[in-house]
Amino acid sequence: MKLFLFICLLSFGSSVSFLPNIKQKASYLPKLVRLQNVPPTILFSTLGPILQTHRFDSILSIDVQKSIFISCFFAMASCVINDCFDYKIDRINRPDRIIASNKVSIKEGFFISFLLFTIPLLVSHYFRYNYITDFITWFSFQNLIIYTPIFKKIPVVKNIVCSHIISSSILYSGISASNFILSNNHILDPNKNKLFQIWNLCDPALQHLYIGLFFVVMIREINFDIDDMSGDKSSNINTIPLLIGIKKTKWLCSFFYWIAYSELLFSAIIYLNRIIPVI
Questions:
Q1: Distance (Å, whole) CA 9 – CA 3
Q2: DSSP 17
Q3: Rounded to whole angstroms, what are the CA distances from 167 to 30, 163, 228, 249, 254?
C-alpha cells in the first residue's frame, strides 16, 4: 500500500512541469499553506510529550522533533490540497484564497502539496525509522489524502475526521517521546486493532487532552460550516447547519464546548496529580 501511494505521488509530481514565475509564486506560499497555523501546531504538539512522560525536557528528543516536523508539513500540505479540491466552493465562500483567485493554478497547487507530503513521508521512513511512528505517519497521510474528495462530502463524518486529524498530532508526539514504546517494535499485537493498541499506550492525561482538543476543533469546523453555508448549499454539500439549522447547530456547539472544557480539565487534574500527588 505504501509503495503504491508513493508511486502515485511520484508519477503525479514528475508529470507536472516546473512552476513558471517561481519567485512570484513563492510569495504566495505563506498564505497558501496557512503558515499562521504552524505555531499552534508546534505548541499543541509539545504538550503530547510532556503529558506522556511527565518531563518537560522530553520535547527536546530528536524523535519528538521529528514528529512535530512531520505534523507541520502535513498541516501545510492538507491546506493546499484542500484548496485544490474546494476550488469551485472557495470561489463563492472565500474568493480571496490563492487558488480560488487563480494566483496559483490547481495543477500547481497539487504539485506543491505533492512536495509537502513527500518530504515528511521520506523523513518518517528513512530518518530514525520506527515501526509504530511510521504506521501513524502513513495512517495520517491516507486520511489527509482522502478527506476532501471523500469524507468532506459526508455530513458529520467530515467534521469527525477533520477533528481527529488535527487533534491526533499530540498523540503522535506523545508516542514519539516514549522510549519504552519506540524501543519495542513488537509491542503491538498483529492480531488486534493497531489504533486501539496505540490509544491504550497513551497516558490518560494525554487521552483526555486529545478528546478535549477534538471537540474544540469540532466546534471550530462547525462554525466554518455556518460561514460557508451559501457555497456549500450551491455545491450540494450537506453540512450540519444545513441539515438542522443554525439555531440547533449553535446549541450543539454549546454542548460540545462543555465536553471540551470537562476533558481539558480532567487532563490537567490527572497530569498535576502525577507530578504533585495531592489532588
A1: 10
A2: P
A3: 22, 6, 22, 22, 19
202: cell is 497513551
How far apart are alpha carbons 98 and 209 in whole angstroms?
Answer: 34
State how far the Cα of 141 lies from the Cα of 144, in Å rounded to an integer.
5
Amino acid at 12: F
Distances (CA, A) of 224 to 138, 218, 227, 232: 27, 10, 5, 11
- With a cut of 90, say whether residue 93 has pLDDT above it: no
pLDDT of 233 above 80: no
Q: What is the pTM of this model?
A: 0.85
Q: C-alpha grid cell for residue 181?
A: 514504546
- Residue 150: DSSP 8-state: T
Residue 9 makes CB contacts below 8 A (sequence gap 6+) with 114, 117, 118, 121
Cell readout for 162 is 477533520
**For residue 12, what pLDDT is reported?**
55
Cα 178 from chain centroid? 21
Chain centroid, CA 249 distance in Å: 24
